[in-house]
Specification:
By secondary structure, the chain is of the alpha+beta class. Helices cover 34% and strands 18% of the residues. Among the domains are: 135 residues, 7 Propeller (Methylamine Dehydrogenase, Chain H), CATH 2.130.10; 160 residues, Hect, E3 ligase catalytic domains (Hect, E3 ligase catalytic domain fold, Alpha-Beta Complex); 74 residues, 2-Layer Sandwich (Hect, E3 ligase catalytic domain), CATH 3.30.2160; 105 residues, Hect, E3 ligase catalytic fold, CATH 3.30.2410.10. It contains 30 helices and 34 strands. The strands form eleven sheets. A four-stranded antiparallel sheet has the order 1-2-3-4, with no helix packed on it. A four-stranded antiparallel sheet has the order 5-6-7-8. The chain has a four-stranded antiparallel sheet with strand order 9-10-11-12, with no helix packed on it.
């Protein structure tokens, strides 16, 4: 093809708008406005990216296959290799790799665009190519170089070739805003306008006044005091543009590339052009052996400084935003200058997403810009973090945003992640408020690409590179929603499933700083929505937890851990009703129990491994399942024992007791631990009736009432808190306290609710949780208050409180002293040791003083409750399991009640019944519950979970209603009036004794 000495149009590109172009030795590559690459020229090393399998001389430009999908924004060409930069900050390379200039870690060539993996996630904003080396600038102002290093052009202090991108250490503390590569030298401009150069110096191209090669970045001191805004490098020369509009150059002048020179080499910067004759330079370009300066015509009043180009948010007006790529930068220095001029010579600038969203709300013309911006920013790890750590002051009059800081990391060195949560919220809200499905789709696709990238490379890059992105993703309102949100969620939760323990700890620390509305309303609720939308995966969970659901549970577990240390939402917010109601809890329990006590790393196979998601009702079902399994096993054992021995074995635990000697009879018959696993049946001596559950219920109520009688001496009662506590001075033996533990265990084991009033500390200790000063408030509020006041007192503790390390208490009318430490009477409590004093005081009251009694109680409890199911419960849930709910929702009970023997919900007597019940006092309602169920408290889950039946018991009569407490059945005659029903019912519940058996 003939050489051209005058510009000619490349007709093959007439149908494309070209936004950037670069030339190598024998090839040219262009970027179109759609993000595709078009290339032509020599292809002997694959530098055109065609992957044709043969050497191609591309006479006409052709689109590189697949490049449009990657949405390229910049391109750079070396001698025989090419770099291409996507709008999301990823670098691709192809062509000659013999010097390592492709950055793939080898010396192989590549004929198609291939990702430079080492730069993934760093957010590259500018690329540059020398003859056989490459450079990249990140959004954080760091410079990476690789390839040929013979002359020190890589800046690493050596002349070795490097096959992977490496950060230039000498520039780490400098905020670099622009880079350029010559044939064998490299340059960088910092944010304060200084120029650094390094590499081949034979032709003076480094500007240091010497021919010596420079192996590390060195400031060009001849330009000190001047502010540089742009640099360009040719094969052996360099040109720079200053803020005053002056152009300087140095290096090889053999081909007059520096204009008129006194010699063939210009070792120091020479003024090439200044603002004159109404012209002001916009940018300067150093070609291989030539130089060009592009100017604009200006009026006299327009003369002034050019603004230095910084990597800040693009705050262009709407008119400029609607043209080209969202990451297209503005020119330095002039709002009125078309930002297409020379933009490819400068780094990409991140767009102001909020400004663009506001523009779209005002005019649909900006929709394409927003689509590109979302694609670029939300698919880039680093860009996303930088955008949401920018500190922006928004003018209340709606003027353009004013940049305050380059990168603002609010709280990054403290507990928080340093993200602008309000900005994140505003962007998401603004995008969704547009009600544009295409924009939502673009956002979804970008976030999916983002998380897919993290999934792919998370094992190869530091977690610190992308951790914060997970929080930005979690805040997205699409999480858990159908459509785009579903795929976002799948990939996001997949990452949570794989993060390290250290990353989880950091995530927990960050999460604790979030506002409650975001933590609960966005994070927790979003994950619950995702799980609820997968009911089919829950109901078919016999084979284990589906991978999608497992990832979401991993994310939820991190939130739960964060919440457990800094309560942001109630623990009940973590209950997932979909799992609790639809999962196969029986299969889940079997899988869990099989791995529960594994010695090695326990695989995740069951929902029981995430107990915080299970409602108390679900946990209660699992516990009853476990109890039934143990009962069945004990029954089988009894049968087998009888088969192989002459000894008769009763398959049931039958307690025959006298009302007058309830405790002694029970204690005597609970002697054998193995019997405790058998199904329980109770017989009251001298009384008729078969125990189908009702007798057992009353037995427990009577026994508990007697054991907790203060006169019995086992427990003390605090009138203020209405709680019982272990009597440290009790004369009873361990057997009695073990019996109380047995009774609690048997009640749980047999599904009976008990009317006992322990403080929360007891339930925590039952689950072997630690207790603290906070728990003492429930037991001894006055003592707890005094200790708290001592602990936070600002003055001198010793002189004010006059305490020592002793406790004085009364023992049968005699004052006793207990030393908290050895010789505690001679150790005063001071500001320095008060923390230890409070800790020891609490430990004595809640642990040491009752150790013998509580240990016996604990032993008795675990003689019955030995299965793993109890570990699923929080202490609050254990209290609920044992004691039931103290409040009642009779509307819920009405909704679930069944009717038999001729009654329906529309029967007149039934309507009267519920009117009477709802008009009852609280005490009367408790009496009704006790009369019909044998207990005056609601079960776990409330009255909505109670199986309650009302059956017709004949025609109108004066007989009272009766009940089968075993089955929660109330038998009501067909009374003739509401008043008669009310009279008969209240009389029955007020005078009920025994078991209500007909």
């Amino acid at each position: 093809m003939e050489e051209q000495v005058v510009p000619i149009r490349v007709a093959a590109l007439d149908t494309h708008m070209v936004t950037h172009i670069a030339c190598g030795f024998k090839h040219t590559v262009a970027v179109t406005e759609t993000g595709a690459l078009a290339s032509w020229g020599g292809d002997e090393y694959g530098q055109l990216g065609f992957d044709s399998g043969n050497i191609v001389d591309g006479v006409q430009p052709r689109i590189v296959k697949g490049s449009r999908d990657l949405h390229f924004s910049r391109v750079a060409a070396g001698g025989y290799h090419t770099l291409a930069l996507t709008g999301s900050g990823d670098v691709y390379s192809f062509g000659d790799g013999s010097s390592g200039a492709l950055g793939h870690g080898n010396l192989d060539g590549c004929s198609t665009p291939s990702l430079v993996k080492s730069l993934w996630g760093l957010g590259v904003t500018q690329i540059a190519c020398g003859e056989n080396h490459s450079a990249a600038l990140t959004v954080d102002g760091k410079v990476f170089t690789w390839g040929r290093g013979k002359y020190g052009q890589l800046g690493h202090g050596s002349t070795q070739n490097i096959k992977l991108p490496v950060a230039v250490k000498a520039l780490v503390d400098h905020d670099v805003i622009q880079i350029a590569c010559g044939g064998d030298h490299t340059l960088a401009i910092t944010s304060d306008g200084r120029l650094f150069s390094w590499g081949h110096g034979l032709w003076g191209q480094t500007g240091h006044g010497t021919k010596e090669d420079v192996l590390s970045p060195k400031q060009v001191h001849q330009l000190e005091g001047r502010v540089l805004v742009q640099v360009s490098a040719g094969a052996r020369h360099t040109v720079v543009l200053l803020d005053r509009g002056e152009v300087y150059g140095w290096g090889d002048c053999e081909q007059r590339q520096l204009g008129t020179c006194d010699s063939e080499i210009q070792f120091s910067p020479k003024l090439l052009f200044s603002v004159e004759d109404g012209k002001r330079p916009l940018f300067a370009v150093a070609g291989g052996e030539h130089t060009m300066v592009v100017c604009e015509h200006i009026m006299e009043h327009q003369q002034g400084h050019l603004g230095i180009e910084r990597q800040l948010l693009d705050t262009s007006s709407e008119s400029s935003l609607v043209e080209g790529s969202a990451t297209k930068p503005c020119l330095p220095g002039g709002k009125d200058v078309d930002n297409r001029h020379g933009s490819g010579l400068r780094p990409m600038k991140l767009p102001s997403l909020l400004q663009i969203v506001q523009n779209v709300a005002a005019s649909s013309r900006a929709i394409p810009v927003l689509a590109h911006a979302l694609e670029d920013i939300f698919s880039s790890v680093r860009f996303l973090i930088v955008v949401f750590t920018q500190k922006i002051s928004r003018n209340i009059n709606g003027d353009e945003n004013q940049i305050i800081d380059r990168v603002h990391s609010r709280g990054e060195d403290s507990e928080g992640p340093g993200l602008d949560l309000e900005l994140v919220q505003a962007i998401y809200h603004g995008v969704l408020q547009l009600l544009n499905p295409e924009i939502v789709r673009k956002l979804g696709e970008a976030m999916v690409r983002l998380f897919q990238g993290i999934e792919k490379y998370m094992d190869e890059v530091p977690e610190s590179l992308w951790e914060k992105v997970l929080l930005i993703g979690l805040q997205c309102p699409l999480i858990g929603e159908n459509g785009p949100g579903d795929m976002i969620s799948v990939h996001l939760f997949s990452i949570f499933h794989r993060i390290s323990a250290s990353a989880k700890r950091k995530m927990c620390k960050w999460l604790r700083t979030y506002p409650k509305d975001i933590f609960g309303g966005r994070f927790v609720r979003g994950i619950h929505r995702f799980i609820s939308n997968r009911e089919t995966q829950l109901s078919s969970s016999r084979e284990g937890i589906h991978s999608d659901v497992l990832g979401s549970l991993k994310a939820l577990s991190i939130l739960y851990e964060a919440d457990s240390k800094e309560v942001l939402v109630p623990y009940s917010d973590f209950y997932n009703t979909s799992i609790s109601n639809h999962a196969s809890l029986e299969d889940d329990y079997y899988r869990w129990s099989n791995v529960k006590f594994a010695n090695n790393d326990v695989p995740i196979v069951a929902f029981c491994q995430f107990p915080f998601i299970l409602t108390p009702v679900a946990k209660s079902k699992i516990l009853q399942l476990e109890a039934n399994i143990q009962k069945t096993n004990q029954l089988r054992l009894s049968v087998m024992t009888q088969l192989f021995s002459a000894e008769l074995q009763n398959p049931f635990l039958i307690l025959t007791v006298r009302r007058s000697s309830l405790v002694a009879d029970t204690l005597r018959q609970l002697e054998y631990e193995d019997d405790l696993k058998k199904p329980l049946k109770v017989i009251f001596e001298g009384e008729a009736g078969v125990d189908e559950g009702g007798v057992t219920k009353e037995f427990f109520q009577l026994l508990i009432r007697e054991l907790f009688n203060v006169g019995y001496g086992m427990f003390t009662y605090n009138e203020d808190t209405r709680h019982f506590w272990f009597n440290r001075d009790s004369m009873e033996t361990k057997h009695e306290f073990r019996l109380v533990g047995n009774i609690l265990g048997l009640a749980i084991y047999n599904g009976v609710i008990l009317d006992i009033h322990f403080p929360k500390a007891v339930y925590k200790k039952l689950l072997r949780e630690s207790v603290s000063l906070k728990d003492l408030r429930d037991l001894e509020p006055q003592i707890a208050k005094g200790l708290e006041e001592l602990f936070v007192y600002q003055g001198d503790v010793e002189s004010t409180f006059c305490q020592n390390f002793q406790i004085t208490y009364e023992y049968f009318g005699e004052m006793k002293i207990y030393d908290l430490v050895e010789d505690g009477g001679n150790i005063t409590v001071t500001n320095d040791n008060r923390e230890r004093y409070v800790s020891l005081y609490v430990k004595y009251l809640l642990e040491d003083s009752i150790r013998e009694q509580f240990d016996a109680f604990l032993e008795g409890f675990y003689q019955v409750c030995i299965g793993p199911a109890l570990s699923l419960f929080r202490h609050e849930e254990l209290e609920l399991l044992i004691c039931g709910l103290p409040h009642f929702d009779f509307d819920a009970l009405e909704r679930v009640t069944k009717y038999e023997n001729g009654y329906t919900k529309d029967s007149q007597v039934i309507k009267w019944f519920w009117e009477v019940v709802k008009s009852m006092s609280l005490d009367e309602k408790k009496q009704l519950l006790f009369f019909t169920t044998g207990n005056d408290r609601a079960p776990v889950g409330g009255l909505a979970t109670l199986k309650f039946i009302i059956t017709r018991n004949g025609d109108d009569t004066d007989r009272l209603p009766t009940a089968h407490t075993c089955f929660n059945v109330l038998m009501v005659p067909n009374y003739s009036s509401k008043s008669k029903l009310e009279n008969r019912l209240k009389l029955a519940i007020a005078n009920s004794t025994g078991f209500g058996l007909q």
